[in-house]
Amino acid sequence: MSRKFLSIWGIIIPDIIILYTGLWLALRIRYGVLESASIDQHFWVFTPLFCLWLLIFFIHGLFEAGVFRRYATLIANLFSAMVFNLLVSIMYFYVVPNLNLTPRRFLLIDISITFVLLLAWHLVVKYFLKNRLIQGIYLFSLNNELGELETEINYHSFLGYKVLGHLHEQDLSTVNLEKNSLIILPDNLQVNGKVSQELYNLRNYGLVFYNHKDFYENLVRKVYLSQLNEMWFLENISYQEKRLYGFLKRFVDILAGVTVVIIFLVSYPLVALAIKLGSKGPAIFTQKRVGKYGKEFLIYKYRSMITATDTTWTSVNDKRITPVGRILRKLRIDELPQSINLLKGDLSLVGPRPEQVGIVENLRKQIPFFDERHLVKPGITGWAQLNIYASTVEESTIKLQYDLYYIKHRSLLFDLEIILKTIYYIFTWRGR
Description:
Layout: H1 3-31, H2 36-59, H3 71-95, H4 105-129, E1 135-140, H5 147-155, E2 161-167, E3 182-185, H6 193-201, E4 208-211, H7 212-220, H8 230-236, H9 243-278, E5 284-290, E6 296-302, H10 323-330, H11 339-344, E7 348-350, H12 357-366, E8 379-381, H13 383-387, H14 393-409, H15 412-427
Parallel strand pairs: 1-2, 1-3, 3-4, 7-8
Antiparallel strand pairs: 5-6
Helix pairs in contact: 1-2, 1-4, 2-3, 3-4
């Protein structure tokens, strides 16, 4: 069963049906016999709210097949999502004017019933489709070219992929392959005509072929860095941003910048006081960072550390981080002053993290193609920031894989996914 089929017909549409079923059951339990006018009123009031609920399900990963791998993950994510939905609902009913509804106890009944129904359906999906959620993979290689990919597949087994075996030239005519499996081929594969024909004929058995670099990207959503070369960038990276995407992205940046700068100005007295009481030094510090096309700019942040230099890594548990600064970092409050950079155009809301000048100079010498991450405007949040916190050269190499994946696939939809997941990470204290 394809993941697209599972997401649409097995999760999203049933979830929508369950939301309205839970609403109807909650109305019957709370009010007994209902008039059609009352049902209609609740339907129209709750429909925008349900759209927000579905958005929260999305950022909790409940529309992804991977969440069905473990019962604990499924239950925890669904419970967390419903808690968020309750908080959003309370804000919705008390902030939006002229709704003529104050559900209170009814809202708790609806949330509880909906949670039970959703949990029951998701457990049913997991139980009956658990074997069909596993996608079998055969690796075709002549000299173990796919060893790195096999390691990644085994490491990400929770995504539902399983290596069924290794194929070689002499295996094709003798091995029985599972139907509807995947066969991964290495780059620049050169085999004789007989082997090519045998591979071609396997399509009749429902087997699907992937280039190993493309499959690697789809699996881990980062580029295959070990085999990058100049031609890869010419073939895969657009050096001219699409005008509509660039215009809309800048519009969103300005809108976000205006909103966040207001929050920054309102929060400044209290945050600045807390920073100064916690340690000596200014409330806000500026630092040179490297932006688009390598252009340097001054970034503004609330000070979260005792000292800061242009050549020193900041680790997750850095001793220079103050107690107040640790809280600011967890909640991403330290980045509020960057709204100034958003409005100036130094930063975008989404993009690769802007690194310190001294660190960039060092990494340029040690990591091939490191400067390619500067093809786009840096961002307050980004795909790499969500996946890894880099404080070494090795971690920065992995981070570059995520940055290049973002640059290759950048779009408004991808930006929205990153923004939503960033919000989720903040509220679940996964920020760093």
